[in-house]
């Protein structure tokens, strides 16, 4: 009797990616209609992201003691801000080394409609606080949802301690389990959705999508991989874990983030693998990872700083030390509360460009390859979030080395 060969979701996604690229090159525009299937898959995932993040943060914060939250929160903030600034600096350095803007051929392709955000610093800061949480949820403004969830979770934690009332917290935990189960079911369609998305993108753009700005992609890719490799080495040394085991345990989440180009879509996988493969406690994973999705966008920071360097080289603009510092600061600040779905990088870039006096129509130069640059951005957005969670878990003595090393298997999350 023959045994059926079972492929893991990771392998299915990798195969779907390769087939999608081949299908796009062979059939070109004939597969453009497949895009609707891919977009349906992304919408199925995205429809629950706001409540998933809100529920995870409220559960994590609500289950903490107030003094505990303060101690962990400061650590998380410092690691997030430090890594984001470092990523922006690396983008500038690689921009100087590879000079990607020097070889760009100008295109007259029209810039797609992109919503330009507020350019004033005070407006950016005010945008952290929602005037209406329902409106913030409907618009998918993640930073405002995070702020509300932190305050709600803090109030819930205080009520829990003062009144000894755990009813609301228990209800939220049960609700989160339902949402996670729903997303897990939707993820079974990931290979089909990803195949359709990639086939349609390659089919519509052809070789041009890889050729016009190949130097930019190579620069971004090499900078991202070098930064990630160095960051993993630092994490392995700090947490006293095996580097190769760390990379193996993070392989599935890396593949999902790279192929979907969406931190939001990757979040359920991150939470699951952090607990079941890396040995990070539920408490740390559910607090750090949702916060990292909106506040720790290393890949986006690098993309923004490198893009500005590319445009400056394209327009032959000389940048002084003050300009470089401004680029780093704006790239770091713009990453907080950004759109965490495919295409969000162009919207954020449209916010940064006018702040630096660069023409926003230049974004058309990168619009054609946004999907491919988004692969590297998302990989660098997602993996450092997990490593920060690993570092915090190590500091708090909540890292299970037996699970990390594969000598103990954790029970699956309640369904």
TrEMBL record:
GO molecular function (one): symporter activity
Membrane topology, from the record: Multi-pass membrane protein
Localization, UniProt: Cell membrane
Organism: Candidatus Enterococcus testudinis
InterPro entries tied to this protein: Na-dicarboxylate_symporter (IPR001991), Na:dicarbo_symporter_sf (IPR036458)
Pfam families reported in the protein's UniProt record: SDF (PF00375)
UniProt keyword annotations, A-Z: Cell membrane, Membrane, Transmembrane, Transmembrane helix, Transport
Listed name of the protein: Sodium:dicarboxylate symporter family protein
Keyword Transmembrane helix carried by entry: yes
Listed transmembrane segments: 12-31, 43-64, 76-98, 142-159, 179-202, 214-239, 291-312, 324-341
Main localization category: membrane
Cellular component annotations (GO), alphabetically ordered: plasma membrane
